[in-house]
Amino acid sequence: MRIRFIGLILVTLALLAISPSLHPQNSTKPTPDASGAIPDLSGSWSPHRPVPVTAENALCGIRTVCNDLLGQSAGPSVVKSDEIQMQPWAEEKYRAVKEGKIRDPNFAGCMPQSPVDLLVDNRRLFELRQFPDEVLLLFDQDHWVRRIYLDGRGHPDGYSSTWMGHSTGRYEGETLVVDTIGFNDKNWLDRDGHPHSDALHIVERFRRVNPKAMEYQFTVEDPKAYKKPWTGKMVEDLLPPTTEILEGTLCDEILQLGTHYSAKSNK
After folding, report:
1. What is the pLDDT of residues 167-186, one digit of tens each?
2. Cα–Cα dist 78/267, whole Å
């Protein structure tokens, strides 16, 4: 009887030890909302069209008819450049781009595109994959990968300047909010040629607007390059589930074509 009683105690203690209800939740883990629901943003996506930032905009996500429904035509820019107030050096560099004096560092110097550029460039595809502690953005261009940490960590002190920066994220209702710092200053923000400095700070918002479309919004804060923050939007189209993200090797292709320029040509 005594042996049976001791065995019962041991079994009870073992069950209590593995009971999740007795362990406090990790306070660093993100809490998406009161219900604990996380919006489903996973899938393969393709940038669709620029969306001007206006209160009356509606999103439809249908490529062939959306411009008519919105009463607008597709434009080459994600944001109107005349709405961006630049610091003198940035404005001079941007003007040189428009005059053809500075070549695209992506094509001319084989430099990676910025995170924003990769998400608004309609030549690009990307795959978004969600996990409890991080989100991965997988790009066709040179197999670039962005890691967005959701485990509650902050940006590390003294983070080295990189092409993609350091990204942390959280869920606000149905929106994934991403905060990124730690950039170098060697590429453009977008296809239009907007420059940036190593003080660049980007806040991005990913929000599913219907089963086939996701709104991507970014806000640029860079006091060295711009007098005030500015924002752009893009609708991303959901691609069929059988879509495969193929390998893009831009530098190899332009080297074979003989159109590669040294990085010095971008100064």
Report:
1. 999 999 999 999 999 999 99
2. 25
